[in-house]
Amino acid sequence: MNKLEGLEPKRVFYYFEELSKIPRCSYNEQQISDYIKNIGEKLGLETIQDEVLNVIIRKPATPGYENSEGVIIQGHMDMVCEKEDDCNHDFSKDPIKLIVDGDYIHADKTTLGADNGIALAMGLAILEDNTLEHPSIELLITSSEETEMDGALGLSENVLKGTRLLNIDTEEEGVLIAGSAGGELIEARVPVDYEEVNDYVEVDLTVRGLMGGHSGGEIHKPRGNSNKILNGILKEILETIDIRLVSITGGTKDNAIPRQTTAKIAVKTEDIFRFKSLIEEIKNKTINIYKSEEPDIDIVVAEGDIASKTFDKRTFDSVVLLLDTIPTGVFTWMPQSKEIVESSSNLAIVRTEKDKIVIQVSIRSSSEDMLLELRNKIVDKIRQAKAEYSISGSYPEWEYNPKSELRDIALELYKDMYGKEMVSTVIHAGLECGVFAKKYPKLDIISIGPNMYDVHTPKERLSISSTKRVYEYLTELLKRLK
What we know:
The chain has 11 helices and 21 strands. The protein is of the alpha+beta class and 482 residues long. It folds into 2 domains: 10-180 and 398-480, Aminopeptidase (3-Layer(aba) Sandwich), CATH 3.40.630; 184-395, Alpha-Beta Plaits. A 6-stranded mixed β-sheet has the order 1-2-6-3-7-19. The chain has a 5-stranded antiparallel β-sheet with strand order 14-15-16-9-17.
């Protein structure tokens, strides 16, 4: 028996469970793209799979809607693949283990992939349901959204026929998104030099157990950044004891707030007892500082082998300087609303390679000017550390359109169905809608979705009842777009 059998809408959850059996981390999407393509072909519908693995499936209008403007239902096929430290799940081959807990579906110690598998499931259920009334539909499923929006950016500028786009990639029912941030990835590279050492002992320092979260939707929340916290510990140790750096690794995705960071350091043998006393004091103090916002924070200290080679002082100082001075969190709030983030940065990843230490920072903004100001601020810090840098993965903001017939219809329908106003807002997360708006300037676009929580973390969960309501709303919206 399937885990989601009996849940409503039946076919939505059928497809969601089937999708959960197929590996679909970003850049491992051939199998999921082929699955979606095969569904379209089995339904006898016009199906296109392009060179970047996007899939478009077209369903004709039902009687009475032949002259209505076409509608595009859009989501992305990839998911963020995160897991708990003690989880052996292999995202390259293992199905997601689904767990139903009351009104929620979550996975067993991994991300769930409701972001954005639920959009695919809803779209496929609509394609196969011949009882629905609707204009012509194009189901557009893009690839690699969670990394650099490769699918949206690689989409042809003349393949879509519809003029109204329903993006199903937001995480709060009753909220209509009408604009989103743009962004880019800044990578700093610290060239490394090594030196031989004698009478040093290796020690692993790990900050773990943080909540993490989506660096767009949750960057404003009081959550710790493991890269920043561990660097603070290193700085405090350096004030008292001579230590060397052997390696440092933290964070896994540029769009996720880092949850765990480990530094392998070297401590003089003669200082090891003094170090143990100091690190215990720093550990307890750090945990107490963050405990209220990060209840599961843990700092682990593990003594290792004799050290023979470390990075030199210049390399260590550059890394500490960068991790200390590169900002993370909210940079500016929207001038017209102090509750909406305008620009932010996420000090997402630090990793050690043979000839360099790499630090990646994801920045976002709804304002091109603020994005440039934030970029320049970070680049200045990189230059001060005498490191190299590059900028990649740029994606455009989705500007709010004050005149949107689609938005007006959607807001009116919500009030008719539920007797209350739907919230219309812009968000700080990056959506593919910005790319589509640039490629197809005449598109009328909105974004909606069911309630999801803690996306991009192993605590990700999807509300069953909210999914049912949003699907009913979506099918009614199609009916109203005559």
